[in-house]
Request: fold
Amino acid sequence: MTEKKAPLLGRFELRSELGRGFHGRVFLAWDPRLERKVAIKLLLGSRRDGASRAQFLNEARAVARVAHPHVIPLYEVGLHGSNPFLVFEFVEGVTLKQEIQRRGALPEDEAIPLFLPVLEGMSIAHELEVVHLDLSPNNLLFDTLARVRVMDFGLARLVSRLPAADDDEHMQGTPRYMSPEHFTGGVLDRRTDVYALGLVFFEMLAGQPAASAEGLTGVRNMILKGDFDWSRLQALGVSGPVTQVLRDALARLPSTRFAHAGEFRRALAEAVATQTQPDSHDLAVQFLLRRLQRRPEFPAFSNSILEINRLTADDSSAGLNDLAEVVQRDFSLANRLMKISNSAFFDRGGDGVSTISQAISLVGTRLVRMLCNGLLVFDRLQNDTAELQDGLVSSFVAGLMARNLGLRLQRALAEEAFICGLFNRLGRNLVIYYLPEEFSDIGRLCLNGVSFEQAQKRVLGSTCAAIGAAIAATWKFPPAIVASMAPILAEPEAATIDAGMTLRLWAQLANELCEVANVACDAPLDELDLLALRYRNAVSLSPQTLGDLLAGALETFLELAPTLGITASANGFCQRASQFLAVLRVTDAAQPAEYPT
Reply:
């Protein structure tokens, strides 16, 4: 009896079927020419004319150039009738999916060393303008040397020939590991691979898919909303910096993701360094600054502030007209600066001002610089988030309070005190705006009894105050204002308080007073008494006077609110602060203000 011959695919002898899916079948085969086992993927459902066959060969050549130990190499390609097939190195092992199913969630310190080489391999592909388009735990092989290797570039495309939104190929891939742009008809590119890699890494850390819903509709909705179980990662002990990297990889908008796998890898390596190296605190701050720089609008926003600060620096040769020209480029900024210059806040006699140059001359270049910075922050950070609106309004009221403290106690510091009070919580407001998910994570930890300080360090690897000071330094803020952002944990002795420390104390007192007023309280006088006691060396004011300080600043803010684009009657902070003062008045604790407002 003659032995049955193995079926052939080209010259390759098919030994067994390893698997099949929507896009094709995978076989274990034997290459008689080179006498080695190979894995062959036969792509099904493809119609190839001469032009498309040539394009397929071009793409295959590009994939074959992707040489990295953690990428399974493509040996050659061929055609079986009209269906192309790809010949890969055969590697013994199990898929990453099978390994996760066997073991469950991988500890962070084990998952990262496995995943970083995958990102290295994909960064080589992206440098060669090759995108995979079908990355998933099923297409990552856990080999006998415990390495995770990328396989199956069967859907790979050159960046120059990515499928259009209305192309049938646009929806090829594994739905649970697709990107939002797959479902919305957006452009597929390297950032599509980044998203899929993020989903893979999430699954390694969580032990279950990020898009864990049943059915295509459920998966689609989870991916489009980014509605993943981040609390599971927190519960499993995944560190804050690593979670931040994962959030950036899984950003819904491609423009806010890493541009390619190489960026993803660098960010993840930096996240590890923030926790393991001796200077980890500084590294954590730099890591967060780089995250902010990836936000599309942040660089332009920063450049606007930098240009104003450059023109108004102490060593600048720029004149008044140069600064006026920069301010006038931003109609909203110019309009608000004019209105504030003509308000009672800067009532210095005369008939008011009618030009930006007059406003700068009246208010002073140094104060205009910081006013413009404050207005830019106030304008750019406003969104529909009530917490951020409240934070910005609270910061402005705190600035007004710090100014009034200066007018009362040390007039020469009054204008600088306003700026220090205004920017004291800059880092917190920036985190709320640019890293809202992380700020929510901090809030959840606080609800579970973790202090705000510790919650920030767990989630961010640093503190909001450190982030604010670092950003203010990059914006070239005056050193005294940058220094004023650092928290003072214990009030210094009166004899050691210089002008710089005075500004820090006033700014912190004003912001803490706003925080007290922002929380419903049955005994406001007791809260003010505690504040007065804490800051007795800095201000030596009674609780009643602190209440007057808040009332005067809030009244001034209500006058300025329309200029700032704020509807005070609808603002949560204004409402709660007014209620706080109302309760204070009921107890007959408030006294007439004895300072200018």
Observations:
- The radius of gyration is 30 Å.
